Amino acid sequence: MAELLAPAGSEQSAYAALRAGADALYLGMTRFSARESAENFCASSLEKLAREAHLLGAKVYVALNTLVKDGELSDFFSAAREAWNAGADAILIQDFFLGKALKEMYPAIELHLSTQAGCCNEHGARLAKECGFSRVVLARETPVADIARISRIIETEAFVQGALCTCFSGQCYLSSFAGNNSGNRGRCKQPCRRQYTIDRAGFDAPAYVLSLADLSVGERVRDLLAAGVTSLKIEGRLRSAAYACAAVEYYRAILDGAPEGERAAALSRLKRAFNRGDYTRGLAFGQDENLLSRNVQGHIGERAGTLSRIGGRYFCRSAFAARTGDAFKILRGGKEVGGAQFAGAGKGGFYLSSRERLSEGDEVRVTLDTSLAERALSNERKRPVRVRVTLLAGQEMRAEGEGVSLAGAVCEPARSAPLTQQDIASCFCRTDALPFAPEVTAETDGVFVPKSVLNAFRRAFYAALADRLAPPRTPLAEKPVPMPAFMAEQGGMTAVISAGDTVPEGADMVIWKPVDYTDMAPPEGAWLYLPPLLTAADEACIAPQLARFAGVYCEGTYGIAFARKYGVKLFAGTGWNLTNRISVAAALQRAEYVALSKELTLREQDALAARGVFALAAGEIKVMDLAYCPFGRTCASCDRRERYTLTDEAGRTFPLRRYRAADGCRFEVYNCASLAAGVRLASALADCSLGDLTAAGCARAPAGKLPGATRGHAERSLL
After folding, report:
1. Same domain, 410 and 525
2. Do residues 118 and 43 both lie within one domain?
3. How many structural domains compose the chain?
4. pTM, rounded to two decimals
5. Do 561 and 692 fall within a single domain?
6. What DSSP state is assigned to residue 590?
7. Residues 370 and 390 grouped into a single domain
8. How many CB atoms lie within 10 A of CB 148?
């Protein structure tokens, strides 16, 4: 049976999802959560929630899935141990190697690999298994055919509902370099949800060109289950309890085979709870026409009707039972023109008030249905338990059920008013605060038991039952964190990423980035650049060409198993997000060269410098990998340029590079300013993907040599 996994960004959302029928919840603690702005949980609130979940047969997973720096390692391991001791059933981690170290320290802890790790193919799955993970949360871009391959190696969890990141999982740095708020550190400010223009005809008007519609696979969950997916994940730790409840109810209805009318009603409630862009099936099934929400950035709700005027007032003829407190979004030609509030019921619909001037024919969409919050908070969920109580004269009281057997005092025969079977059943139907729904069978031959004694016996039985169904966790003792030593040394090498045919002068190695992976003509001696998303179809194109390269520079940790399979040298790219010495040391055991996270300061880089360690020093800063076409696959009218420009509302320009993979075009977004940070102890990596080779010649000391450049995070550390 598939697991339905729900978000718990707050206690209210957690209990709403649990009582709506979720099989498991995932949440963050006060530190190391990729959703730092969610309410998140302390140890005591987690312990309370985990106990109720376990009593109901559900699980609780804790996400400690941000990048961890050297100075935070002790706190990270303590947080993982604290979460496990409080009752967590698994810990979600982004960093493969921190997970491996945690598993070696505490073998009892179950590990799930966060989607931030970008697991998208068999190679990533094999590495996860080697590092001690029991499940991978799949990158949202993973094709369903590849999901089936991964599911044969390790347990898989796939997103079925909620917000989609526009960038490939774990590889977004736009928020980081635009405002020192790193998505990899839980502080994403979602610049992808803003308006941009693109210098291509038909796309040059301001629009939400990077904002993806909400994922809703709906009935296609069956395709995921057929592919071997174990857990169906709902995104939304920053959303309301009403949303958590509605999403769980919708997928519960599908999984339980509810009648079509019930499924339709559940989907209607979900749309009103939150719906960006009228939903997309996502990328697992191939890019659909509704992937992008170009016209409306946020919650678009559910269509209620169209606007008219009656007696000088705005009126919406609709079957929706609007009431005080409900709110609406008004669209004209598919674009948002304003908002409105409920202003009274009318025959066959309701009246609206608005600060904006609205027009007849405008579309009215429900974006706040106050009844949904009430529904979310009113649900109850109890666990059915079968209980048999035997009270026979001269024998000990006995209660049995669900594997628990408890004996009490010896019963005395009644002289008058003996206990009846109904009396006993009524007593044992009370479970106080425990979420049980008992089916009680009583046997007696007419005994007398004082009420206080019988009630105490009942409470003792249910306490024993609760301890069996939700046993207290045996606490893990604190252990010292094993810290590998580093021999700091001057790197002295320069590696250059280039997409052109020209080999940069002075480079010790060239990492070649193809424009078309299906038709490659590399310069001699170059390393092949592999993007973070590598599908089975991509691999089939690339594998026959590997002998032409010195090795592979890989942006995904899948490169370890990939390089091993094909017997090629490996350069671990910046996409591995290496931020601490445990992970750097582990990466160096598996790759000839490694690149540090591009979000580290020079001081933090120096602390991790060793032979074979590189840091991005100069050139372009790739801030996004897009596994989709921002032009909606309008191939017939496409000018097929290699370069475009994104321009934001402030007039900043971000280069947009197109390249071809096996399944069609993909795109990369680069920062509005080039990097001129230099290096001290590490070797230098220069990114010349956009064709300007200037950075290659000054990567070791570029200050002042790249006009208009930024120093990035060279001096300012990310919190």
Report:
1. no
2. yes
3. 4
4. 0.95
5. yes
6. T
7. no
8. 16
With respect to residue 484, please indicate whether it lies within any of the assigned structural domains. no
368-384 pLDDT per residue, tens: 999 999 999 999 999 99
Range of the domain at 434: 383-469
Taking CA atoms, 218 is separated from 47, 256, 285, 539, 541, in Å, by 32, 13, 12, 30, 33
CA atoms within 13 A on the CB side of 654: 28
What order of strands is seen across the sheet that includes strand 396-401?
404-410, 396-401, 383-391, 436-444
Are residues 610 and 502 part of one domain? yes
DSSP β-bridge partners for residue 134: none
Q: 393 and 537: one domain? A: no
The answer to the question of residue 271 being in a domain is no
- Asked if residues 416 and 447 have their Cβ atoms less than 8 Å apart, the reply is no
- Would you say residue 648 lies in a domain? no
* 598/621 Cα distance (integer angstroms): 8
* Number of other CB atoms surrounding residue 319 within 10 Å: 8
230: DSSP letter:
-
Structure tokens at 21: 């029928």
Question: 629-640: per-residue pLDDT in tens?
Answer: 999 998 989 999
559 shares a domain with 420: no
User: In angstroms, what CA-CA distances link 614 with 70, 491, 495, 557, 618?
Assistant: 17, 8, 8, 16, 12
Q: Are 248 and 261 in contact (CB under 8 A)?
A: no
Structure tokens at 444: 């007696």
